[in-house]
Design brief:
mainly alpha, 137 residues, 7 helices
Length: 137
């Protein structure tokens, strides 16, 4: 029982840390360069939480599920990461017209959370719609 409480607490702390980093990204994005905000956020996610966003975006569905399971990522974590990756895609699309790999990565995350979760959120439905629009589905 104690082991479960410790794991639960670690997962909650991970969620708070991801949320804080994404909030910092939004703050940085509004006051400065989006490229710089992405770079800072990716660096912090990697150093503080051992989450490598570019590597995560390259994983295929089965590898992604293994990564998610091994890092104890929850629905909330995945929703936050999918939104962040979508924002990277929007930036890349604006810069060089090619955000497709990021949109696809965001959708893969949402597909995994859809398979693993018993719940759906309006924010997730909205993000799926935005991604489909960007991908031209």
């Amino acid at each position: 029982m104690q082991q479960r409480d410790i794991i639960k607490e670690e997962i909650e702390q991970l969620g708070l840390a991801i949320g804080k980093l994404i909030a910092n990204f939004i703050g940085l994005k509004t006051i400065g360069s989006i490229s710089e905000a992405i770079q800072i956020t990716n660096t912090k996610l990697r150093s503080d939480l051992d989450l490598d966003i570019p590597m995560l975006a390259r994983l295929e569905a089965n590898e992604l599920e293994e990564y998610i399971d091994s890092n104890n990522l929850t629905d909330i974590h995945l929703d936050q990461l999918a939104s962040y990756i979508f924002e990277i895609g929007m930036h890349e699309k604006a810069v060089d017209g090619n955000g497709e790999k990021w949109f696809e990565a965001s959708m893969r995350l949402l597909e995994v959370v859809g398979r693993k979760s018993d719940t759906i959120t309006l924010a997730r439905i909205d993000l799926i719609g935005k991604i489909e629009k960007e991908l031209g589905d």
